[in-house]
Amino acid sequence: MVTNHETAHMVDHEAEANDRVMFGFWVYLMTDLLMFAVLFAVYAVLHGKTLGGESGRELFSLPLALTGTLILLTSSFTCGIGMIAARGGKKNLTLLWFGVTFILGLAFLGLELYEFTELIHEGHTLRSNAFLSSFFVLVGTHGLHITSGLLWMAITLVYVIRRGLNSHLVRKLALLSLFWHFLDIVWIFIFTIVYLKAFV
Amino acid sequence: MKELLLGKLDGNALPHEWFTIAGSISFILLVIITALIITRLKRWKWLWNDWLTSVDPKKIGIMYFFVSGFMLIRGGLDAIMLWLQQALSSGSSQGYLSADHYQQIFTAHGNIMVFFVAMGFIFGLINYIVPLQIGARDLASPFLNTLGFWLFVAGVVMVNMFFLFGGEYAATGWLAVAPLSGKEFSPGVGVDYWIWSLQISGIGTTLGAINFIMTILKMRAPGMTLWKMPMFTWGSLCSMIMAVTVFPLLTATLFLVFFDRYLGTHFFTTLGGGDPMMYTNLIWMWGHPEVYILMLPAFGVFSEVVSTFSRKAIASYTSNVLGMIGVSVLALSVWLHHFFTMGAGANVNAFFGVMTMIIAIPTSVLVFTWIATMYKGRIRFDTPMLWFLGFVVIFAIGGIAGVMLAVPPVDFQLHNSLFLVAHFHSMVIGGVLFGIFCAITYWFPKFTGLKLNERIGRYAFWCWMIGFCMSFIPMYILGMLGATRRLDHYDASTGWQPFFVLMLIGGIIIAIGVALQLAQILASFIQKNRLRDTTGDPWNGRTLEWATASPPQFYNFTVIPHITTRDAFWEKKHHKLPKPAYEDIHMPKNTAAGIYISIFAFLVGFGFVWEIIWLVAVSIIGIIVVFVVRGFNEHPEYTITAAEVQQLEETRARKDLAVSRPEKHDDTDEDMGLWQLIGIVFGFAKDVIRNKRWRKW
Amino acid sequence: MSKINKKKHSPGGLLLLILLGLASFGLLLAFLLRGKNVALFNPKGLIAQAQLDLMLLTIIVLLVIALPTLFLVFFIAWKYRESNQKTIHHSGTRHSKLLDLSMWSIPTAFMLVLAVIMWSATHRLVPQKTIAADAKPIRIQVVSMRWKWLFIYPDYNIATVNFVQVPLDTPVQFDLTADEAPMSSFWIPNLGGQLYSMTGHVNRLNLIADTPGDYPGSSAEINGAGFSGMKFTARASNMDDFYRWVQEVKQSPEVLDTATYDGVLEPSENNSVAVYSAYTKGLYDRVLTKYAGSHTQRPAIYEAKH
Questions:
Q1: How distant is the alpha carbon of residue B116 from its chain centre?
Q2: Domain locations in chain B?
Q3: Cα of C292 to nearest chain A Cα, Å
Q4: Beta bridge partners of C219
Q5: What pTM was estimated for this model as a whole?
Q6: Complete edge-to-edge strand list for the sheet that includes strand C231-237
Q7: Beta carbons within 10 angstroms of residue B244's beta carbon
């Protein structure tokens, strides 16, 4: 009886801790969103300051941005499926779907790096003018978030392979998927405000 | 090759001004002496295990007090240096500091006082008191808490680097206004130190604030609804919600300044399409709420103190809470009043003027609730209450000045003058710092188990009051005379010198006040038997923290209480409770991860300041590794069984019982006076010298 | 100090001591203020006068609420002190809706009054607004540099450094901008409030003087090493004196051509007064367009591409 009672106590304790961590992570995401809000505001103020250089319409490639967007959206979807598998305790399925998510994320990052290097090769660097400064920093900050998400994903998956799907790791994956969806949403804003708006 | 290894660092960077050399030497001596004492007492292990790696919010709170207290003296020395320069430097005399040094000192003074004194004390208080007030054993994330504290310490070290290690500090004013802070006008490393000091400690603040929001919203004792929370917890909650709202803005803005300086972007530059006015907006969107982040917990403290010492529940609890919520919401919409003079149109200026006036309404409501609380109370005037009354006077003066500044045409005349400086010192000293002193006096028994010496405390209070009036009333007047802030020199024909001299004298009186506060603590420890608090409730308190022992057990509450009313402890005191049934307690294990991450974070900053790229890269990898090791540690907690809890409680009770029968004869009936303290200290020194006791050490 | 402590049981004695201290401190300050130019209380023009009136009005409204509140705090604290046996003490709090209502409505009413005063005054005294007067306004273009003030008189084709002279009762339009300098704030306390000068922007500040005299002016905003030496004199004189001065300046051998301007632009501290009998046409506009991002000013990168 005593052990039963104690196990129940432990489970309660853990559930509470889970609840707290989830809530705290939401608060963290809000702070991150505010940071992006600043970068968006800065972009809104500076996007016209091209000093006579090309504007977004001439520099951006819509098909490229659209491809990136679709890849990221798909990765959000696969991440969701992976999370369902993780909650169901299906280790291999979890690894598969998060693996797909990881590859899609990597592809998105590759596209972004390709876009950046092209621009820099043509002489459009973040030193050129205020518009390009704000563009590179806004999109680059998102890219940096994607990179850290990928790093986090890789490390967590390694632990899942070694330790199996315990509650601790499922919680990690849940936070990670929150983070990933969040980055997806931020990207939708970037796609709309930076890329689409340049062609309207 | 050298550049690859050391970046911009070379011999020129080492301290070579008299005050930086003096700073370095005294700091090195201090470190050596401290290290020697710790080694001699064989306390290294104890220091590391019991304090530095501790995740107990009570211990972290005390460590915040230590660091912030130290910084208060450091920032106070800055203030005296500034005042001395201004008192001397009139007409043909140039004083003893160059303009550049002077500007570095006032920048450092502002940063240290706001970030590392006021913020540190406030975070220390919240750490210690909030979990006790809401009936929690710990914070939601003990790891984030130690990380936040150690990032704060990294920021402290960074802000002091310019004389501990070398280089210079920003000479731009505490907010490093653009474009002055750009590479074009400030090519040295000063602004970089500024950026990284604020960046590192600011991230720590954000993490800490997230943690406290989680704690307050998710870990209150059963039955404690939001509307039953104590006032200080409410103030802290409002403050922390504001902190998570605005600190990300600071983080983003600092990164943009950093990119401007380091990567050559054009966010706030004059050329290249940058917009310096945008910087002014962004920094004040954070900067104004920051003041209220400090102020709201202090409001909470005053509510607690007035209620306790009037022996009445706070009057109009709802109005008081709504007042604090109102202040925190409105504080987000007034930032433009810091630059009416930048040339916005009448509508914009008038709008922000009106918003600023509206914020005076909830603030006045708070004052009225305190008056109503005192009404028909049974008021005792212990030192916390003195600090409260002093606060009311200075805050009223500062408040009047503040509303004057909120009227744009009046602000055109007063902005950037010493009047403005006097105004915000009234708010930050009279409001925040007095609030902190009030809180420390009030909760000192909880922190240490000792009440503070009342007599010397009163002397200290009067020194602060008199010194404050003597420094800041002339400062208001100087503003009216047309003296701008941050002057390192002025013409003799202006006739300002006598006022600057008065300010210096006032500053010295305040310094005596600080010395007396240290003496007060010393005297309290000398008379510890007399002042010991064995009840856990020395003031006849009302809130839950007084239900614990003084100081509390490391798990705070043996049994988590069930709350039915506001002033939970007050109600409980009048009902006898059955003996508690002990149960298992889960506590977090100590961790050094926060220390390691902060060291690496510091090195990232240091690497960027001196452009040592390998150091930055290595440190970032270090941070990631520590995070991974810590993050995937699945056993961060341990359990104390019910039997162990019972044993701990019984030991504690025996110990308290032993102390509660003090030997009366070795103490006088009254609190020790100043002369008596001096006598004891001299006697001790004489004893040490005469009996050559130092040999034994 | 110890005297105060001993008197802690008699609030009357303490009050007396505090009042005595404040009174003697006030006397000392008053003594020190004799014969000083208390700039904000010594307005020499319409704008400064209006700003002073507004300030005094604000103070009065605020004191009407603050003084009784302060008095109440101390009176109640004294009346309900523990040692006072004559009063009734209550430990319970009865909740009173009326109390809540008055707590919120009294400060709201005061702030409403102030807000109304402030709103109209802000629109009336907006610095960009041209001052209505009989005389035709005089234009003065101001460039803040490290660390000096350049004044250009487009109507008279003269320029000065760290000295500006204006005719009495004539509205003056200062067009403030900056060149290769951080933000500065242009402030002549005797004539009226300040405004920032920034690169690439023109901030117009309208002032007027009604009494002849020399009034100190400075930068109120920190802008680097030479900050506290960045002072100038604003002289107000009658029209005849003003014209005489203009003629004098026109006799100056120095001319502010591009080369001279570049010399003036070099950072320097504690500059003395300089006058220029003429300046190169379009000087002020060039200072502005330098920061406007025009095609000629864009980075070399673009030049290569086109």
A1: 6
A2: 43-591+632-696
A3: 8
A4: C186
A5: 0.93
A6: C163-167, C231-237, C213-219, C184-188, C192-197
A7: 21
Number of structural domains (chain A) is 1
In a mutational test of the C interface, the residue from A51, A55, A59, A122 whose CB has the highest number of chain C CBs within 10 Å is A51
Give pLDDT tens digits for B415-466. Answer: 999 999 999 999 999 999 999 999 999 999 999 999 999 999 999 999 999 9
Taking CA–CA distances from A131, the nearest residue in chain B reads B273
Architecture of B43-591+632-696 per CATH?
Up-down Bundle (1.20)
Among B295, B232, B282, smallest CA distance to B256 is for B282
Spell out the residues 6+ positions from residue C303 whose beta carbon is closer than 8 angstroms to its own.
Answer: none
Task: Judge whether A171 lies within some domain.
Answer: yes
- Chain A interface with C: residues with Cβ < 8 Å: 49-53, 123-124, 127-129
User: What's the Cα-to-Cα distance from B156 to each of A165, B160, B198, B429, C261, rounded to whole Å?
Assistant: 42, 6, 9, 20, 45
Q: Is residue A16 part of a domain?
A: yes
Domain holding C166, by residue range, is 138-292
Q: pLDDT tens for residues C14-28?
A: 888 889 999 999 999
CB-nearest to A130 from B217, B249, B273 is B273
Smallest CA–CA distance from A167 into chain B, residue = B634
The ipTM, to two decimals, is 0.94
Q: Please report where in the chains the tokens 């003018």 appear, as a residue.
A: A129
Q: Which among B213, B252, B267 is the nearest to A35, CB-wise? A: B252
**Are residues C301 and A51, on separate chains, in Cβ contact within 8 Å?**
no
Q: How far is B221 from chain C (nearest CA, A)?
A: 25
Across the interface, whether the CB atoms of A123 and C297 are under 8 A apart is answered: no
Q: Does A54 reside within a domain?
A: no
Interface with chain A: mutation pick from B134, B203, B214, highest number of A CBs within 10 Å: B214
- From B416's Cα to the closest Cα of chain C, the distance in A is 6
Integer Cα distance of A183 and A152 in angstroms = 14
What CATH number has the domain bearing residue A73?
1.20.120.80
Q: C10 lies in a domain? A: no
Contact A128 C305 (CB under 8 A): no
The strand pairing partners of B152, in sequence order, are none
Q: C231-237 and C163-167 as β-strands: parallel, antiparallel, unpaired?
A: parallel
Enter the tokens of residue B200: 């590192």
CB B460 within 8 A of CB B445: no
